[in-house]
Amino acid sequence: MSGRVGDLSKEQEDCLQKFKERLKDVLKPGHDDYYLLRWLRARDFDLNKSETMLRNHFSWRKREKLENIADWECPEVIQKYFTGGLFGVDVDGCPVWIDPFGQIDLKGMLKSAKKADIIKAKVQLLEKLHSETFSDLSKQKGQRVESLIILYDLAKLGMKHLYKPGVDAYCEMITMFEDHYPETLKYAIVINAPRFFPIAYNIVKPFLSEATAKKTIILGTNYHDTLYRYISPEQLPVCYGGKRTDPDGNPTCRSQIGQGGEVPLSYYKQQMLSADIDNAVCVSVGRGSSLQVECEVAVKNSAIRWQFSTQGYDIGFGVYRRTTGERQKASKMEEVVPTHRVNSHLVPEDGSVTCTEAGTYVLRFDNTYSWTKAKRLHYLVEVLEPDTEDFTNPNSSQASFHIKPE
């Protein structure tokens, strides 16, 4: 049985009644069977886990003052440069959120707005989705609507999207979504997935529930026929093979779907330019010397991601791959990222590179040009391995992705 209203087993029905009894001290009139079953399904009808989850949710709502969230004014930079928007419905009449995530400037966003405000903006959208959008569509359809499709367009997604503070913020959003809006996702459809997508997916996978992972559908650039099984062309922008445009003919329907883009420097907040790097290693690079930080890459097509800052002065930086098993000078190693001077004393530097081969990689901090000043360096380096699951075979027993059969 699906565990939904009208499709409950005897055990599930008994569990629902016990759930109501346990929570009668906190339930309100709007907390009907549809609402309660979402929390039970999220914890596989484990009564204790479901109760803990829902009570934690009520405490969170009180702590975050969500009864007034609709009155909160979202910062302008988030309104203008965050991607996505509700647009149309799927073939079953459920709402669709279209998100051209490949166009978001995560770094610019985190340097212009507080992470807490970015997450709060998502909460505000989700609250409106549940209180207004689902309600309106349920009335139009004559039956309960309680889930949505998210269409992620990853065209233009690049290594810049591995910016660690941005990834961390996004993972927090996923956790918030899983903990407080369970069973809201019908499907997540990913189109234009780039070659390095397995690395990005492997970062967020630990934050996804098993149920969410099973609802994720990964498509490449030839996605239209499959997409139309879920969303008709009449409900899609022209840029995705649909028939809808803005009144001015814009094929991306940007009046309803935020298109992201580079955040102007005028939005940057000075106090965010010199933010500390969490868990950083602190060292001194002596005058006229260099520091080599080794990274062992065991799986080809992994990515190395770095953040670093210096105090008072710039420093040289480059990435190399060893050609022997012993320590080498930069001139003897394979150059991956050419050494260049970085003003990391003004703005913390971050970046990443894909390692097409396994081996020992070296991040080299160069202070050989300075004969009078040692450099105080804070750095954080991570190796991000790609996900090893089968992204092409939806029937693989290990795959987290599937194509819904026709």
User: How would you classify the quaternary structure?
Assistant: single chain
CATH fold-level topology of the domain at 72-267:
Phosphatidylinositol Transfer Protein Sec14p
Structural class: alpha+beta
Euclidean distance between termini CA atoms: 21 Å
Q: CATH superfamily name of the domain at 72-267?
A: CRAL-TRIO lipid binding domain
The counted number of beta strands is: 14
Question: What is the succession of H and E elements?
Answer: HHHHEEHHEHEHHEHEEEEEEEEE
Contiguous low-pLDDT stretches (5 residues minimum) are 391-406
- Overall mean pLDDT stands at 91
Please report the first level of CATH classification, the CATH class of the domain at 72-267: Alpha Beta
Give the overall shape, derived from the CA principal axes. Answer: elongated
Number of helices: 10
CATH A-level architecture of the domain at 72-267: 3-Layer(aba) Sandwich
Largest beta-sheet characterization: 6 strands, mixed
Strand order of the largest sheet: 5-4-3-2-1-6
Strand content: 15-25%
Organism: Magallana gigas
Pfam family, one: CRAL_TRIO
InterPro entries: CRAL-TRIO_dom (IPR001251), CRAL-TRIO_dom_sf (IPR036865), CRAL/TRIO_N_dom (IPR011074), CRAL/TRIO_N_dom_sf (IPR036273), GOLD_dom (IPR009038), GOLD_dom_sf (IPR036598), SEC14/CRAL-TRIO_domain (IPR051064)
Protein name: SEC14-like protein 2
